[in-house]
Request: fold
Amino acid sequence: MRQATALSFRKVEKAMKRWERRRVALWAGLLGLLLGWVLGGRTAAPRGPPAVHRPGVRDAVLQRELAVRWWRGRRSGWHTRPLWKIPALAVDKALYADSVGDGDGADEEPWVYCNRVPLYLDVAEVTRRAVVAAAHPKPPFVSVVYVTKRPGGYDMLLNSLAQQTRRSPADYELICVDEAAPFRVERVREEARRLGVNLVAIVPSKPRQPRYRDLRFGIYNALNTGFLLSRGRVIMVVMDFTWIPPNAIARTIEFYRQPEHERSLLAYPERFVVPKELNDTHVARPGSLTVFHEPMIASPAEYLPGGRMVNRSRIGPVVHTYMRPAPLVRAHLAGHPHGYEKQSDGIFWELSFAALPWRLLEDVHGAEEFLDRGDDCHEINLRLRGEQLGYDTYIDGQTLAQKIWHHDFGQDYTWTRFANDSNVDFYFWGEIGRLRERKRPARAVDAQVDWRRWRQLDCPLQAAYGMARRR
Reply:
């Protein structure tokens, strides 16, 4: 009896020891995973782009990871992208060294831009920019910066640019800051080549500054990404689902060639139309180039009754109650468009489609990224800071943009993301109010680079890499 009892106790003791060892191993494993997430994820993310845009190098697992995080996440947080949530891919060190020089440190921090502004530019992107700069040493007059993070929109952008009256590389370049670039970069490049559009870069926006990781939005961050990549004397900002009229590049060049407009901002009137129906499959895919059943190859007005595309229409009625500014739109539609007009009261300048000189960005040190708490007021912030430094604002009544009205259309949150994303109340009585009262400095307090010196580098991309290596 005693022997059996002792044997039972020994079995229990062994079982308890085995459980203790397993418990320790379990906690050690969990601690290792936590440390790997904290140390590995946060430090590894800035070292690589979300995708290396060359056939055979993409990683399908990371693509799916991006898709889940960007397009199927929680409604209140899908657009939040802290640095440690960005998957990183391996860098082809040999190709990198051949492209931007070799030597000590060539493989260290290969994705750091000026050692402080990391941009997701892979080797192919660096090489492409260098080739463009070599082929066209003189910068284009206009840099078109297209900003998007939704599916679709490229059918309108590329077809409208292909129909410009001035479309040579000396006239404009196209830079796309696209959060869905990993899903559609090759398709966009192929379509741009087919249409003869001068696309020089398509990248996601740069990672947020560490102090702004938890901010909800990222429009200022995306704008600064496009601004830093531009070479033009004038920056034309275009948001998604905007049809650029054929005379836009020509009229913008004409305006800024006049010496009296060197310190001027230029606005364009807008007319809105409603989509009749969307292709739900395209809307659900971040790699889509259009959200319609067929790509839009003409202006939205051509799809309305009386237009040459009416039988292929996916466009519904015009939003007559929403045209900006209404008098200029009506005059244009009546066949008596206004010319360049200086604005004083009730100034209209919306970055959904507007132009500004590069000189303004040098003077104010770019967009203020700390304002990425909301989706409003990025244009009024830039304009008011420019006004403090003596910039004025004009509007061109002959350049009428057409936009797709997406507010309250359908239930898909990706499509209607602007409907509830507003911080107007906060900023009009907060930061914007302080700007109006001249209680804030005009120059950005959180600039990552010296904007005045930025373009003095021989080649911003390669010189920046060289600067990082020398440090």
Summary: The chain has a mean pLDDT of 74. The radius of gyration is 26 Å. The chain has one domain: 123-470. Residues 2-44 form the longest helix (43 residues).
